[in-house]
Amino acid sequence: MTQLLRRALLLALGLYLFLPILASLAYSVATSWTALLPEGYTLKHWANLLENQRFWLSLGRTALLSFSVVALSIFFLVPTLFVVRMYYPNVAGVLEFLTLWPFVFPGVILAVGLISLYSGPPLQLAQTPFLLIAAVTVISLPYAYRAVDNAFAAADIKTLAEAARSLGADDAKTLAWVILPTVLPGVLSGGVLAFSAAFGEFALTQLLIGTLWETLPVYQVQLARTDGNGSAAITVLSFLAAWGLGFWALSLRKDAKVSVI
Amino acid sequence: MQKVGIRLENLHKHFQGKTAVEGVGLEVAPGELVSLLGPSGCGKTTTLRMIAGFEQPDGGRVYFGEQDVTTLPAEERRVGVVFQSYALFPNLSVAGNIGFGLRVARWSAERIQRRVGEMLELVGLLGFENRPVQSLSGGQRQRVALARALAPEPRVLLLDEPLSALDAKIRAGLRTELRRLQLELGITTLLVTHDQEEAMSMSDRVVVMNQGRIEQVGTPRELYTRPTTPFVATFVGSMNLFTPEKTPGGYRISGHEVALPVAPAGQVGVRPERVELNAHGPFSGTVELVTYLGAEQQVLVRVGPDLWTVLAPNQVLLQRGDPVRLHVPEDAWILV
Ligand SMILES: Nc1ncnc2c1ncn2[C@@H]1O[C@H](COP(=O)(O)OP(=O)(O)O)[C@@H](O)[C@H]1O
Ligand SMILES: [Mg+2]
Question: CB–CB of A169 and B104 under 8 A?
């Protein structure tokens, strides 16, 4: 491949990725946009959005959902992966396969199944945020799993733990002084991935709880029908949040000098 | 430092029905360096791990001096372990790594600092205390790992292929240094390696293992000059090995009649450097390959059905296809 062609490809990819964001940004500050370029610019849509209580409430719910998902993912993943890596290395493959299942199920099937299962006793959870948080945790798990598992794998946890034990450290000290600090960057970066996945979740949320407990993506879709410019502003906000988190995760990785992805 | 030896009694270990270690018994004297040598998968690491306490034997006992440590957890055995992969703690600096065992043992901060300084000097890394371990070369990392293992004054030192991940040149240097340190500290040491040169050059005694069992134990010289099994004969150094046929006048080897000093029970062998190119030798053959090695040359000679390896002085000019005659002095035959 010639250098020119490589550059052209890179440019095309860049445009493909950034043009929609630039367009969203332009649309969110446009007065009206019918020709190639907007006719005028205004901050009115942003002001409307930021004054709207519904926006702040849905943002709050989405934040609650995302942080809960991160906490639950880490809570389930870290001890499980530690035990698997240390004592049952043969199970690792099975575990990885299991975490891929959420990708296999279309959201509709998952939602219908969950709703019918949790509509009656013993666990009447349908249409509650609890079921939503649990379900989104499950479908976000593959993202977090990759990062956390890679952190465990890259660090060769088993040998590190043995080195610590030969130096007199019991299990508690081994975990606190060696294992956790070693996998922390990977855990955080897995958390960021789970956060992003949960933050943008729409399909399952719409089906499980919809406007009863409106999250930001659900509100955004509603808003798009009446106020396209405001919806574009939310898109831009979400992108900025995602980028911020992404760069933060990258910087953590560099600090720790442990490859996690 | 109180010196203790290691005694292994009839150790057994299997994994999922597959035998890894079978009846290993061994005594390492206080201050001695003993190597476990053998091909990959013969059970060396498993043996070392049972001594360290990382693996529980299915049968047999492990003693440090008079103390039975078979069921003692690893963290209470006071062993120093060095791993092939270094296993340095990535979240700690060089000093943090070396001081880890001391911190666990609740030494005071000044004592830790002093001891870490001593250890850095011992392994030649003064001035490296605040470096992150990721910034070190392989050889430096292994020095840190050694310093970390030695800092808490362990009763025994266990090294699992400590030099195998390093470049040939660094390996050779560290080999000498490791041995010098071990002699200086007088610490009882077990070294696991698949590299016979490493085992031979560093050890007081070498234990040759094969398929979970001990084949032979001896000083490097004993193993080389008096191997007792065909496996040891060929694994330690190289050896021309034959199954002789009894004839009325003596024995037939490679289709030629020879006299042997002792009646062989099994096979007989001769080291390549003990085979002489000699116009009156009894074995006639043809040169198949000449490999120039600098100080000497390795010559492969076809003699009847066998291919002999001969180390010859390189003043003799030989070519593929040349007819040669070989002679073996009577005392050069090794019976295994
Ligand atoms: N944790 C384990 N699980 C299953 N098999 C093992 C385990 N550790 C070692 N083995 C097997 O035991 C045998 C001896 O292994 P090892 O002691 O590591 O050999 P060496 O160190 O001499 O190369 C090998 O066949 C290896 O596959
Ligand atoms: Mg091994």
Answer: yes
Instruction: Report phi then psi at B126, rounded to 5.
Output: -55, 140
- Please give the single-letter amino acid code of residue B330: E
Does the C-beta of B17 come closer than 6 Å to ligand 1? no
Mutate which of B13, B19, B45 for ligand 1 pocket (most atoms within 8 A of beta carbon): B45
What range does the domain containing A59 cover? 43-251
Ligand 1 atom index nearest CA of B16? 4
Enter the pTM of the model.
0.79
- What is the residue with the minimal CA distance to atom 20 of ligand 1? B41
Say yes or no for a CB contact (<8 Å) between B83 and A163: yes
Residue nearest to atom 13 of ligand 1 (CA): B20
Q: Is residue A175 a part of any domain in this protein?
A: yes
Does the residue A86 lie in any domain?
Answer: yes
Pocket test for ligand 1, best of B46, B58, B193, B215 (most atoms within 8 A of CB): B46
C-alpha B289/C-alpha B277 separation (Å) is 15
Alpha carbon of A147 to ligand 1 centroid (Å): 29
Q: Which CATH number does the domain housing residue A157 bear?
A: 1.10.3720.10
Q: Are strands B6-15 and B59-64 parallel, antiparallel or unpaired?
A: antiparallel
Provide the 3-class DSSP secondary structure of residue B317.
coil
**pLDDT (tens digit, 0 to 9) for every residue of chain B, 336 residues total?**
568 999 999 999 999 889 999 999 999 999 999 999 999 999 999 999 999 999 999 999 999 999 999 999 999 999 999 999 999 999 999 999 999 999 999 999 999 999 999 999 999 999 999 999 999 999 999 999 999 999 999 999 999 999 999 998 899 999 999 999 999 999 999 999 999 999 999 999 999 999 999 999 999 999 999 999 999 999 999 999 999 998 888 899 998 888 888 888 889 999 999 999 999 999 999 999 999 998 899 999 999 999 999 999 988 889 999 999 999 998 999 998
Q: Per the structure, how many domains does chain A have? A: 1
Residue A26 lies in a domain: no
| Interface residue A144 vs chain B (CB under 8 A) | no
Asked, for residue A22, whether it belongs to a domain, the answer is no
d(CA A219, CA A221): 5
Q: Which secondary structure element, helix H or strand E, spans residue A149, and what is its range?
A: helix A129-155
CA distance B244 to B107: 65
